[in-house]
Structures are given as structure tokens and as C-alpha cells.
Amino acid sequence: MTSVTKGSSAPILRSTSYAPTNIACIKYWGKRDASLNLPINSSVSITLDMDDLRTVTTVAASSLFEQDRLWLNGNEENPAENKRVQRVLREIRKRVNEDIVVESDAGETITVRADDLKTFGVHIISYNTFPTAAGLASSASGYACMVHALSTLFKVQETYEGELTTIARQGSGSACRSLYSGFVKWDMGSKEDGTDSIAVQVAKKEDWKDMEAIICVVSDKKKDVGSTGGMASSVKTSPLLKHRAECIVSQRLKEIETAYANQDFETFGRITMQDSNQFHATCLDTFPPIFYMNDVSRAIVQLVHKYNEACGKIVAAYTFDAGPNAVIFVEKPNVPTLLRALLSSFPSNTDGRIVSSSDDAILNVAEAESSKINDDSENTFLNWSKNILGARYLNTDSVKRFIHTRVGDGASSANDAISHLADEATGMPKEKYWLGQSLLKKKRDVVVKLG
Ligand code: DP6
N or C: which end of the chain has fewer CB within 10 A? Predict the structure, then answer.
């Protein structure tokens, strides 16, 4: 929804959007054109539920604003120094061609002409409901949200399906997939101008209702090698990356799309894990090598394989982006046992680990684990877990937080005035706007201690 400051001949237009993160099952890694963010291979991802992780962005535009300004999680940044933001604003402004009619307090209508709108300064105010740069794809939700909010504010219509995803892609490649819900493919395309390098929805979130995920936050620190730089070096130096793009990815994409359509977890899970492993192998094949996974990540890989072995088939599948944090896909009936295996295999000797979920049943499972501190006779699951992992992973606080989530919706507009992060009269950020989580659906966190 676009909201407008009334009673002024120089109105302030506002629009607010929400956008989710996504996690790739077939990874995007490598660009054939770095300025347009055109990839060397297609990729596919699952959009995660915004009840658990989301970006909220308000954009405000007015002739009263002398320049574009940007606030992220409470800090002001200079958009003139940020090429990606520049590209997004340029692409949006190019497409503004509708006049906007607003109403004054006196009931008079004011028409803001499209040519004038293009010259308006823009304020972009944004926050994440999860730690930025923690390897949880904040750039994907961030740019998807910016594009959604700006295109809504300026009434930019797509002239072909997926056009808005080409703008989000120019902010950050993976952002193009966050505009849609469910299972989303980013077609690499072949045109030089990138107009066919778009995201398309392959399956709706309702198509696999039981698909859920547990995110293991191993580190919430900013990564040493960013995706953009890492990709550039892999493209230059890794023969494995070239082989992957030319000979592996297209077959995997076909197989995983069929698996998703048939809710065939075994195939889906196998391909997801293999592709994550191959992506990290290309990082190791890059010269000098890039290490995103750490010892804890590798222990999670081992645990998932042993858990699957104990279950007699693949019922859980890990994947890692450019960081040590794991996302483990698992169908709803298996979430409680997997969570218990994780909690007992990665104990905390200090403050405990946080389990976040919007599902009370899962939080109850976490709470029950907490009451079994060191009571091996009661905690047979702990013994089971010790047996499957060989040993508990005793590094203090090796996994800090578990976030239980599910497949979710794509970017959308916020329809209530209270969600706007910009003040109605000034277009400036509202005080402590980054604490707006309280406006979102309530979810509980449980601290689990099992020392
Ligand atoms: C490993 O989309 O963050 O998460 O286009 O340079 O902004 P830029 O990179 P980005 O890279 C994401 C890489 C990945 C895999 C994926 O999401 O497909």
C-alpha cells in the first residue's frame, strides 16, 4: 500500500514491504557478467517463512528530499557509495511512467506527474528480524524487499513476467528468488542484456506442506570472504566450477524439480546435500582456497548422515551457503527427533542454546530436552545421539541457535499504517524502527541447557 502525507502540496509518499530469505538447493556460484549479476549456471531455492526471518523496508519519496538516503538496522549508510543500491534505484526510476494521484486533507486531489516522480529523493529504511551478515542470506531478503517496496511506491508494472526479479538480481543475485514463494528457479538465461535471466516459481509452498527446516546458527559473525569476491576468484581459478556449470547442474535441476513435484524426499535430499558438497568443493578448488564450512559444520554433516542411516533412508538434508551455518531440510513428522539429536549432540556448557520456532509443539520438545540435564537414565535419546555421532560435540556453544522454520511466501506489501518505518510528516526513520519485531507474529524462544 502506498501511503501519502496529506495536506501538503509537496506530499511524502510511503510504501512498506516484507521479504523472506531463501536457501538454494542447487547453488548459484559464479558470474558471467559481474555488472548485471548474470550467473554461469541456473539455481533453485526454497523460500523460508517470513514469520521466522524477514526484512522489512519502508521507502519514502518526496520532492522535499534533497538526496537519496539509506538506513539499515539503525545505521545510516551512503547510497551514493553503494553501487548495488544505485543500480536498483536507476532501474526503478527508468520504469516510472504512471502519474500518482493523492488526496489532500481538504479532499482536493493532487496529481504527481511521472516525470516529476523520477526526480524525487528517496529514503530507504530497512531492518532484518535476524542477524545481518550471519550467512542467513540477508542480501537476498534485503534487495528483494527494496525492489518490492520501490516498485509498489512508484507503481512500476512489469512489461514481461519476471522483470522485477531482474532488478532484484542486480542488487544481489540470490535476491531475485526471494520475490516468490515456494520452490523457485533462477533461470540463467542467455541474452547479453539479462532480460531472460529471471526467477520463476516452480512449485507453490502448498505443494509440499510438510517441508520444514532447522537452521543451525554456528556463527553470527560476518564472513571473511564475501560471496561476490569468492565467486570471482572461483570463476578465475577453479576447473571444477567450470565442469559443474557445464556438465552437472542442468541434470540436477531436472531431477530435483521432479523430486519436489512428487514430494520425493530421498531424491530431493540427496541432490541438495550433493550440490552443497560440490559447491564447497569448488571453494576448496579455488586458488587460494576458500573455507566457508568449519569443524562444527562438518560435524553437522556427519550427524545428518548418521541420523539418516539410523532411519534407514534420507529423511534430513543439509545445505550450507557461503558460511558455516547449516540449513537442514526435514519433513514435519521428523522435526522433533532431529531437533533432539541436534540438541544432544551439540550441548552448551554455558548459557544454553536458543531454539526459535512459531510452532509450540516444537518448543515443547526443546523445553523437555532442557529438563533432562545430565540425566542419562531418563535421556535415552542422548545415548542414542552419542552413539550415532560417536561422541557429543563438546566444544562450548558450538551451535548457538536453532531456528525451526518452513516454506514461506514471497515478498509482499505491509497493509497497516503502523508497519511504516518512516515518519508520516518528515519521511525520516521512526525512533528505534529496527525494534519493530514486536509488530510481527509472536514467536517464542526457548533457552535449552544441556551441559
Ligand atoms: C552461496 O547472491 O550473495 O548463497 O550476487 O554477488 O550478491 P551476489 O551473491 P549472492 O550469492 C549467493 C551465493 C550462495 C548460493 C545461492 O544462494 O544460490
Answer: C
